[in-house]
Amino acid sequence: MTLVGWVRRIVATLTALMTIAVVAHAQDINDYPTSARVEYAFGCLKANGETRQAIEQCSCSIDVIASLVPYERYVTAETVLSMSQVRSDLGGPFRTSEQAASALNELRRAQAEAEVRCF
């Protein structure tokens, strides 16, 4: 089996495990855990200034994203974003696969909608 084959198997297994964990801990598919919301808001605050207005806008932004993207797809997109930055053959599938592009596009559309509604 090639390296790409192994990477695909590992990604599929990790995705399945994350999905099981998400279903077990969330009341429904769009119920983002508090920690995910806080992590997003923290990063947003760092990018947009740490003001009271930014707190309102960033918390609004993650609420909009959560209303548009199921949590498991959000986790997938965040994983793709992280792994696509890996400089090696391991990051390649995350930069070139159709599934990765689809997850990223869904998140980017939701972020654009959040930008319009909240900022």
UniProtKB/TrEMBL annotation:
Signal peptide (from-to): 1-26
Keywords assigned by UniProt, alphabetized: Signal
Protein name: Rap1a immunity protein domain-containing protein
